[in-house]
Amino acid sequence: MIIRVRAPDGMYRVEVGLTDTLATLLQKLAPLMKAPAADAIMLTRDVGGTKLIAEFESSIASLGLKHGDMLFASVAASARPSVEPGAKAPETNKSEIPSFVKQEDVDNQLEKDDGLIKRKRDAGMCKHGANAMCEYCLPIEPYDAGYLAKNEIKHMSFYAYLRKILAQSKIVGDISGGLPPNVVPPLENPDYRVKPNCTGNHLPWPGGICSKCQPSAITLKRQTFRMVDNVEFASPALIERLLSFWNATRCQRFGFLYGHYQSSPNVPLGVKAVVEAIYEPKQGWEEDGIKLDLESPEFEQEMAHVNAVAESCGIKIVGMVFTDLEPTDVPQKVVYRRHANSYFLTSLETRLGAYMQLKHPNACRWAKNGHFGSKFVTCCLSGNKDGDIDVSAWQLSNSAMAMQAADLIVPSSVPSKMCVEEPTKTRYVPDVFYSYMNEYNLTVTANAKPAFPIEYLLVNLTHGFPTDPNPLFKTSTPFSIENRDHLQQIQSLGAIKRHIKDIDYSADKLALVLSDFHLLVYLASLDILSPEEIKLIGKTASADTAESAKRLASQVIDSAGWQTLLIMLQEASDSDLNHSSSTAAGASTSDISTSQSHQAGFSSVSNEPWACRHCTFHNEPSKVECDMCGLPKDA
Fold this sequence. Notes:
Layout: E1 2-7, E2 10-15, H1 22-33, E3 41-44, E4 70-75, H2 105-111, H3 145-150, E5 156-157, H4 158-167, E6 218-220, E7 225-226, E8 230-233, H5 236-249, E9 254-264, E10 270-279, E11 284-286, E12 289-291, H6 297-312, E13 316-324, H7 347-359, E14 377-383, E15 389-396, H8 398-405, E16 409-411, E17 417-420, E18 432-437, E19 443-447, E20 451-453, E21 458-464, H9 493-499, H10 507-514, H11 517-525, H12 531-541, H13 546-558, H14 560-571, H15 581-584, H16 589-597, E22 610-611, E23 618-619
Parallel strand pairs: 1-4, 5-7, 6-18, 8-10, 8-21, 13-14
Antiparallel strand pairs: 1-2, 3-4, 9-10, 9-13, 11-12, 14-15, 15-21, 16-17, 17-20, 18-19, 22-23
Helix pairs in contact: 6-11, 6-12, 7-8, 9-14, 10-12, 10-13, 11-12, 12-13
């Protein structure tokens, strides 16, 4: 429950329980009022009251206090600090203000920016001199409705939305120091689940429910802000290599986006996700879709391994991407299927996006629980109206995340519709509504059950490529992409041997070769290099300058793990299935089979398991390298 306390310097809200004592309330109130001690605060029930509340060991309930009651407080004169006239009050160092939430660097940067949009002097309306300002040329706020409409910004940035909320409490300017002590964090995620630990006189859900713990009715509206404004791919080669799978198989592909967040100059206080690499996890692929076992221990172990490598490079998972392509009779053209008259994301893709955003919440100290929304993005490669392959970027609204967390939505057979789950003995489903414009141009509220349009859950983003690409991973000879064995693009010791054969122990060449995310992930999976050596290689691959990359590469060459890897590479065979460089880049199936027929020394595959001559481990007939020691079959 919340007890309101009015003091000479403002209003405070203190959260206490019915069984908490008055002393607990005073201890929470003392730092807010900057009192030297809890017992220095005097509490009364009315303004200027003389009857003090001094039953320190009495519970809140026994004092007759209820949720929302107001008390009046002051600090005893004898306990107030004395300040000599003219003496300056001690300044508070903003960097010393405690914060339990570790935000992204871009968040800390945007908190220091007021976001004001500067305007030039209007020759027609401004009647003042060059050094003055008026209402026609004063800077405007980043959430100004006229500016957003003029520049066709459908969703304001998250920090513009936050500034709009904080302006109601007269908090402007640099907000990097956090909230004042008398202001409650203004953001809160929607929650459509039954509230636990209800104080009503009934059994816990599902044994009972009351108006206090049951969720309110849901009214779906278009979200006015977005957590990320733009998705920027560091290099067009990222998209081209993903598309190479579809070009070779005509089947769909899925990948996770790895990169970092930066401020976006195109939107006031905007944020953009910069994609530096795409990792393709183990998946089932078909002409019309993909299959992912997201909750299996193997998948979680695989992604934890990749995330550790990404962290060593200074990047993290920022989203996901998938293809939805179908060729037409016209060469180099694909079907245009995602548009306003059909759908942008299917209901299944929408639910997957909400699921992934829940797994990657956005750390935010302006929210009551330390998290608000998510910066995880969803990208789709599909055909545009001209029949060319284009990227579309989306996020799911906070309401979509809350409905997914409460298990209220389920995909439908109609791609553009999302179904509302039926209530059960353990699932409470509140009323769900959405509004739309009817044929008479009037706003009408409709029941969302049994299904409602997907558009109420979507937030569209912009996307693009940098004018002057400067990707984090700069290798000119990319390593084979993971989990493409069926295309004979095999990651193996032999592939590494050929990949680094021309470096001649040169630190410069090694630094450039190691600047490949797919190679780093495979090196880490061999368990030859120690975690410290993997971090060193990650720093080498993502170094800012050539000098620092060369210095770190020299340390890699001298490391014990790298020397062990070189010894194993001497025993590795060059004759495996991905000898052709065109295969690693995603050649067609016919090209792959042709390159295989010209590979010298390639052993035929029998139908019997074979024993490794190095470690005696029995391998599957289709394997060309030992699953245990990694050495080739014919070495």
